[in-house]
Amino acid sequence: MKLALGCDEAAYELKMIIKNHLQQAGHDTYSAERASRSNDAQIITIGSRVVGPELAKAIVDKFLESTFDGGKSQPKVDLISQYESQR
Question: Which is more confidently placed, 75 or 28?
Fold first, then answer.
């Protein structure tokens, strides 16, 4: 899996903490997990001014360990995939 980490100058320190954490191992871990499991999300955003380093690591961990469940969101995800394949 490849991950891209982006930030502005205010978030550089948090980016480096997350990068180091990932090398060693969607605001709360529940949202990150649900974004992946319910919506097949491929990206998360973390605000460095509102999320501390330990919570940011927990959010990243929960997002990475979650997989898409399908379920009620599957038809929406299929429509998005269909649209993307036509472009």
Answer: 75
